[in-house]
Amino acid sequence: MRYKKLTLENFRTFQGKHEFVFPDNKPLVVIHAINGTGKSAMLHAMNYVLYGEAINPKSLSGDKFSIKQLLSIPAYENNNRFFSITLEFENEGKNYEINRRTQLRGDVSIPNPEEDRYYETLLYVKKDGEVLSAAMSQPEIENLINKAVSRFFLVNREEIQELDTALLDERENELIKSEIEKSLGVEVLERGKNILNNIAIEFNKEAVKDTDNSKKAEKSREDYEGEVERVEKAKISIAELKKKLNETQEKLLSLEKEQNSMKSIEEEAAKKQLLSEQLNSFEKQKIEKTNSIREYVMKNWFLPISDIAIKEYENAKRAQEDAHQIKSKLQNISLEIKKLESEIKTEKCKNCNQPINKTQVEKIKKKLEMEFKSKQELEAQYIEPTEVFPSVQVISPYIQPSIDTLEALESQLASLELDIFTIKNSISKIDKGFDDSLIAEVKNLRVKIKQQQEIETLTKQDLENKEHELKMYSNRLKSLEKDIEKYTSDTKTSTKKSQFAKGIRDLFENAFEKFRDSAREDVAKLAKAVFENLINTQGFQIDLENDYSISLKDENGRNAGTPSAGQSGVIAISLITALAKNSVTNAPIIMDSPMASLDDIHTKKVWEFIHQIADQVILFVFPGEYDEKEHRKIIQKNLSIEYTLEKVGVYNAKIIQGYKPQLLEG
Amino acid sequence: MKKKDRKKQILDLIYESLEDNIATTTPMKKLFTKNKLEEIVEFIYEVFWEEKFNPDEKIIAKKIKEYIDLEIKANSK
Question: Do A192 and B22 touch (CB under 8 A)?
Fold first, then answer.
């Protein structure tokens, strides 16, 4: 991996846009700077662009810089409240561009937003020109230079001076050791064996579960035997039922033949049956018709005529009485007339036999006259009572229609009687053709056919049921066969998988043990060699313990006590070199002031050596670490590019290409 | 000073371990040929290597488990 360009905008001391370009011709990049120009800012920028955070090395508890601290002060004051870092690099033939931009959120309107919550950070990662999804961006970075191993590739000044001490601290050692092992790839195997162990456990569980499956297979086998028995029984039943069905059908065929031969008898019998039914129907109709005639006579003739006769009788009786009264009155009047005529004639009173005068005679004459008149009136009123009733005139309107209807009904009745007679004749003719025993035989035959048909239907149904049962048993048989195969095969497979996973796990475990020791030995050997190459005091050597802590030894292998600041620096460079060379991460190394605590001799040795520690090494050095006369000829051969950071005003810095000593005078 | 090819170094160590007499590896050696075992081991190792910085171990485990499952099933046929 090689960094190609780093662009900073409004980051720390770099107001506006500034960029470092790193040509890929030689390994060494040297950036000269005095304090306060942005040496450390470069490392913070690298940490920020890669991981979205920058740790403040001066904070004892490892606090991160706030966004306000990372934002250029003049940019902030000029209301340019954003900073952006872009890193372009190449790895294994692929070109990457990472841009992380932190800016004031659009919805923040307060005048001086200082807290991180007012800002948002956007990350874009391009791989060979293609923008990765948000979800893939950070993991891609972590896969290239994992944050856990970043301290060995982005090395700050404090790290160089304090790495050996930190390794002696129990808590820090644990962390650094884990980071070293991660960097060396030991963790690939360690993690791999742990994952394989979990897989082996899971497969083992499946195998245990499949022991149950083997029991299931046994049970399925038992069920299979039972099912085979049921299938056989069903097959026998089906054969028997088929035989029975054949027999029934044969019998039925023979009965039907017989029935055909007796068809004429059957037809005649059927005809007779039909005629008998017709006869019954006509006889019923005859009874109904007779009843309706009776009813009609009663309702339409007898009852109305009877009413009329009663009324006529009553009228005649009244007339007789009236006539009788009139007759009696007439007799009385006649007697009175006789009496009055005698009195006129005799001129004597009939009652008292005394003579009557002329006036009285005149009165009697007048009375006689009146009696005659009354007699005449009564005679006019008198009607001789009739002897015949009811009269023909009265009843004739009722008689005429009733007779017509009655005649019609009688005619229908006669027609019915004729039909009945005809049918009876036909039946009689049929009866002469055969006797009832033949009809009984036909009936018996019909019953037998019906019985056989019922047997046929039932047998067919039984056969269908049995065939359905057979199909069901056969399906179960197949399913059980599959179960047996599956359970048996699962048991074998899960056992194989469990054994296989255990084998692979132990393989990785074995390789892990070997590799952990061998990787540590590689690091120890190389660190020791680098240390011996860099250290000027003869006889001193370093020992790397199992936990990667380092101890300084004298020529007799005895502990040489606490290393000096210079020795600590050399130890750190040796260890970092050994780790970088053995690391699974192939990243450039950026170091801030690696020679800050070294004397001239060690500084010269480091300058001679430093380009070898990685494919690309970027060093930030202050004037005390670099002597143009001494070191130019040493670095020239491996130097790719040089920059000088120029301090501009109180807060700003500029990137100037080349070595510009006049800008480093402070 | 040449950088070591760690990836290959580790894989070689795993191959080397295949030669070691580890009791639990006997059943798998009976199941597969040496070449096939090396192929399987290489695949598994490749997954671990590629995912070395992936914090989600479950995804890695799933991938390996499915692979072993397939290989064993293929072997059982």
Answer: no
Indicate the residue of A146, A511, A580 with minimum beta-carbon distance to B10: A511
Mind listing the pLDDT tens digit for each residue in A336-389?
999 989 888 888 888 888 888 888 888 888 999 999 999 999 888 888 776 555
> What DSSP designation does A99 have?
E
Does domain A1-145+618-666 match CATH 3.40.50.720? no
**Candidates B1, B19, B64, B75, partner chain A, best to mutate (most A CBs within 10 A):** B1
ipTM, two decimals, is 0.95
A154 φ/ψ angles, rounded to the nearest 5 degrees = -120, 85
Based on its alpha-carbon atoms, the radius of gyration of chain A, rounded to whole angstroms, reads 71
Domain ranges of chain A: 1-145+618-666, 152-210+498-586, 278-406
The answer to whether residue A206 neighbours chain B at the CB level (below 8 Å) is no
DSSP bridge pairs for A655: A645
Q: Does A193 touch chain B (CB under 8 A)?
A: no
A63 or A615: which carries more pLDDT confidence? A615
**Verdict on whether the full-model pTM lies above 0.80:** no
Rounded-to-integer distance, Cα A285 and Cα A213, Å: 85
Q: Which of residues 339-398 of A touch B (CB under 8 A)?
A: none
Q: Sign of the C-alpha dihedral, residues A421, A422, A423, A424?
A: positive
Q: How many CB atoms lie within 10 A of CB A507?
A: 28
pLDDT tens digit string along A198-240?
998 888 888 777 777 777 878 888 888 888 888 889 999 999 9
Selection from B14, B6, B21 nearest residue A509 by Cα: B14
Q: DSSP letter at A301?
A: I
* C-beta separation of A576 from A152 below 8 A: yes
- Residue A586 Cα distances to A149, A180, A184, A315, A525, angstroms: 11, 14, 11, 151, 20
